[in-house]
Amino acid sequence: MLKANLDHVRKLVDEACERSGRDASEVTIVAVSKTKPEEAIMELYEAGHRDFGENYIQELRKKHDDLPKDIRWHMIGHLQRNKVKYIAEYIHLIHSVDSYALAETIDKEAAKHNRIIPILIEVNVGGEESKFGVTPEETTALVEQISHLPNIRIEGLMTSAPYVEDPEEDRACFANLRDLSVDIDSKKIDNVKVNALSMGMSNDYIVAVEEGSTMVRVGTSIFGARDYSK
Ligand SMILES: *Cc1c(COP(=O)(O)O)cnc(C)c1O
Fold first, then answer.
1. Residue 230 covered by a domain
2. Among 83, 90, 79, which residue's Cα sits nearest to residue 120?
3. Residue with the nearest Cα to atom 4 of ligand 1?
């Protein structure tokens, strides 16, 4: 059943790619499994899916300990500096870096494990006060600053668009993030490739793909609604 949901999301992503003249292989579906049981993850794992997104460190640690080691774990939620040490050894991609201080901590923890951790910069494109992320104006300077850290590698940008009834309302937000990434990439900052764009959730991932998303973070449309009361 979850496999059918994932297949449906994949189909809509592929169709959006076709409409916008993109290669469907450019878009990764990150199945957002926060609050969902390990059995649900395993159902998709057994169907061949490997990219899963989590928001809470404690939950991510438990799932990582329990589940197959070839799962690619994406940290998509706000990350506190004192929690980085728990995920530094294995995290596949951190989507939510929004300060130099956090980047420094990731760099330090990555060095302890002799690895380079790939990250995205979280940008608050919509300017909502409730959202994490740097402003578009601050982004280039932060990228330049982080680019000097040896054990961290910037791969792109991430945003969470405002929740709207009509996903068309988020189109400009996604286009702005794409334009910002093209702009930063054109500066040819050493060690920086700003190719990845993590944007689009259950309610707006189709529009996000039409606007250039390379990673959609889809929870509800795959796993069903979340129950936070448990
Ligand atoms: C929970 C979450 C998602 C998934 O949201 P859905 O609407 O369930 O698809 C995506 N991105 C972030 C940052 C999240 O916290």
1. no
2. 79
3. 219
